[in-house]
Amino acid sequence: MSPAPLPPLAVSLGDPAGIGPEVVAKCWDHRSAFNLPAFLAVGDARSLSAVWDGPIVTIDDPRDADSAFDVGLPIFHIPAGDADIPGQPSVAGAHCSLDALELAVGLARSGSASAVVTGPVSKQQLYSIGFVHPGQTEFVAERCGVASENVAMMLAGPTLRTVPVTTHVPLHEVPRRLNPGLIEARGRATLRGLQRNFGIADPRLAISALNPHAGEGGALGNEEQDLIRPAIDALRAEGWHVMGPLSADTMFHEAARSQYDAALCMYHDQALIPLKALHFEEGVNITLGLPIVRTAPDHGTAFDIAGEDRADPRAMAAAIRMAASCAAHRAAA
Ligand SMILES: NC(=O)C1=CN([C@@H]2O[C@H](COP(=O)(O)OP(=O)(O)OC[C@H]3O[C@@H](n4cnc5c(N)ncnc54)[C@H](O)[C@@H]3O)[C@@H](O)[C@H]2O)C=CC1
Ligand SMILES: NCC(=O)COP(=O)(O)O
């Protein structure tokens, strides 16, 4: 007997003045070529019509998304006060992006959506309206009742997956935010996430150093021995395949990447620079450690090109496909 079809995916449009609406609309346009399952958008329908002439179907029940999807792009409409102008973020738009995120996460938590895919939001705009989380990752974790240290922000592309231990914090705070417990928790969330979402039975994790040349035996810093090594030992004691601490400058070339399924890095740019250098056009951000599936494209709001029909939808398409694939893995398990 074939498995029951999964509910549609919920895709929040992100900031209405950013490129989220455009890339979601382009995904619907190219749904066959991109091999996308049915999804429903959540956000201000006017942000779609500002940048797209295609058909929009307003729905208020996710069960209508499947049939509507053949007719037009189904949307749960959230009005954002005055309609936003592409490229000109506003306070109302920030509230709309947060409302859309909240609703889309709620649909996934209730089982009305099989996963949530989040469009790009501006953290600066969200912070300005009192958003207290570093990013959407931590917001979704909180809504799911998971402590933020037990989730992992993975950036995934065809030949590389990376996870930063510290995420959106000033660089000078990184050393004092790192501790063996946090590195271990992120490592464990990553390893379990590889099993649960990607079906990798015996995952291999590479853990980076913090300092140049992995600290050069202590001459260039002690974090490797004091913080990272104890976390590696603890994960190995649980039976996981873990290597490191590896010098960050030599762990991302092709031969090195073939040795592991994911790289755990100490800070944001250490993880995201190699991923975006290799796979910017198709990079996916997936939150591991949640009871629901949440993915996002790797890029941001790109206010500089919003409304110019220049936004590349491939990362959003990859995020939608990965969400569907992870949801299917979980359903099968
Ligand atoms: N998942 C999310 O919600 C994310 C949100 N952001 C937010 O986005 C805002 C802007 O961040 P930036 O660092 O400028 O990164 P960005 O990704 O928005 O833009 C960087 C550069 O790449 C270009 N670009 C980005 N996506 C593109 C696409 N799909 N097609 C063609 N060109 C594209 C932009 O035009 C810009 O020149 C920030 O406020 C940040 O908080 C950033 C990353 C992820
Ligand atoms: N640089 C990655 C990023 O900003 C994604 O953050 P989040 O909003 O998905 O937590």
TrEMBL record:
UniProt-annotated binding residues for substrate: 137, 276, 285, 294
Pathway in which the depicted protein is active: Cofactor biosynthesis; pyridoxine 5'-phosphate biosynthesis; pyridoxine 5'-phosphate from D-erythrose 4-phosphate: step 4/5
Co-factor remark: Binds 1 divalent metal cation per subunit. Can use ions such as Zn(2+), Mg(2+) or Co(2+).
InterPro entries given in the database record: PdxA (IPR037510), PdxA_fam (IPR005255)
Protein location: Cytoplasm
Keyword annotations from UniProtKB, A to Z: Cobalt, Cytoplasm, Magnesium, Metal-binding, NAD, NADP, Oxidoreductase, Pyridoxine biosynthesis, Zinc
Pfam families: PdxA
GO molecular function: 4-hydroxythreonine-4-phosphate dehydrogenase activity
Cofactor(s) the protein needs: Zn(2+); Mg(2+); Co(2+)
Catalysed reaction, written as an equation: 4-(phosphooxy)-L-threonine + NAD(+) = 3-amino-2-oxopropyl phosphate + CO2 + NADH
Binding site for a divalent metal cation: 168, 213, 268
Superkingdom of source: Bacteria
Documented EC number(s): 1.1.1.262
Class of this enzyme: oxidoreductase
Gene3D superfamilies assigned to the protein according to its UniProt record, in alphabetical order: Isopropylmalate Dehydrogenase
Family: Belongs to the PdxA family.
Role according to the record: Catalyzes the NAD(P)-dependent oxidation of 4-(phosphooxy)-L-threonine (HTP) into 2-amino-3-oxo-4-(phosphooxy)butyric acid which spontaneously decarboxylates to form 3-amino-2-oxopropyl phosphate (AHAP).
Complex and partners: Homodimer.
Miscellaneous comment: The active site is located at the dimer interface.
PANTHER family according to UniProt: 4-HYDROXYTHREONINE-4-PHOSPHATE DEHYDROGENASE, D-THREONATE 4-PHOSPHATE DEHYDROGENASE
Name this polypeptide is given: 4-hydroxythreonine-4-phosphate dehydrogenase
Lineage: Bacteria, Pseudomonadati, Pseudomonadota, Alphaproteobacteria, Sphingomonadales
Name of the gene: pdxA
